[in-house]
Amino acid sequence: MIPSTYADWRRCIEHDCGLPLTRDFIAARLADLRDPASHHTEQFVRHYGGEHHVRVLEWFERAERDAR
Question: Would you kindly state where each structural domain of the chain is located, as residue ranges?
Answer without folding.
Answer: 21-66
